[in-house]
Please model this.
Amino acid sequence: MNHPIEADLIDRLLGITPGSRLDQIRAARPLARENSQKSYLALLQPTGFGGFPARERWAVAAFVASLHGEPATAAFYAAELCACDPALADIVVRAADRVATQGPYGRYPAGPLSAEDAPGPTYRAGDDDRAGLGPHLAAGLAHAHLLIFHPRDAGPDALHARLEAGWSTTDIVTLSQLVAFLSFQIRVVAGLRELAATLQAA
Amino acid sequence: MTEAVLRHPENTEPNRFTQAQLDWLPWLEPLPEAELTGRHRQALVDPARAKSPYFMLLARDPDILEARTRTDKDIFYNPQAGLPRAERELAAAATSRFNGCIYCASVHARFASTYSKRGEDVQRLLDGGTAVDLGERWNAIVAASVALAVTPIAFGQAHVARLKAVGLDDAAIADVIQAAAFFNWANRLMLSLGEPAARDEA
Model:
């Protein structure tokens, strides 16, 4: 699980080789590149895990990546979780397949934007999965699904439910950052891959 | 009392998109200023952010806060080549409008207006949503941002081609991708950790 720090994950997932056109494009925003990698390391390979252990971080990441359906990131995070806990990887990836939907949906504060309210499912792990996940991780995955598909439905009640499941305030901040960061990282990979395809076609 | 949610029953959340300055009220306890260490101050990057409940809540995990902030600054403020600042802000505002983050949209719509001098067009984006006609160049940037915001991601080579057709080079297209991707990160934090509040008109 200890990848060398110099192996930039976004570069790896895109198959970027030194000196390529995409390498040059990424090099134009060097601090974004460096700190995207530092973000990944801070969340998945931190110096301290607090109350959010490594296997749960990889589980949330595999779940989120699978929900997005971006093949390279989904395969990467599923493999990392599998290396850490194969039985858990099986539960998480199957759960993600079952509850993947289309977002964003959700409700606005009542008013003129209510016309744009779009209903959609709220995810809670089923009893079978909860047995394998445990209540703490089950709550983490519920939060990940909320943030990925219907973040405007978020509210203090959802946070209260996570606290009740044993998440501390600080660990909820880290969980939120992990899910939100992944929604960035996966989009950078997906977007730059499409850009790269047009470069090769040119 | 850290391990409890904060509720704001006295607040009436803004129920429409606006370019006015809003406040943001956290649903979890920010780090008290008295508990700031040198590491926290470094992670805040900007000392003034010690006054912001949003950044002080995120400061509970300083490593990811610092990497997040440095990623953000390079994507939006790096003046070298790429997309003009106004249009990086347009991508941020369009993403926020589409995801439904009234707070983020207010900040970045204001920046888009300031840098583009097209405040009325920006207001039409806020009022009418991401399908309004803003002229082909802005339409292409907004459409790319929306295609990146949906889950699963719908951004494809047709979006790249449309951006090229309105005059964006590869570096500028990469900026659209990173600016839009970044606001999928920012929107999820802002939407899920607190709520916007109208500022008292003095």
User: Anything to note?
Assistant: Chain A is about 65% helix and 0% strand. Chain A touches chain B through 73 residues (CB under 8 Å).
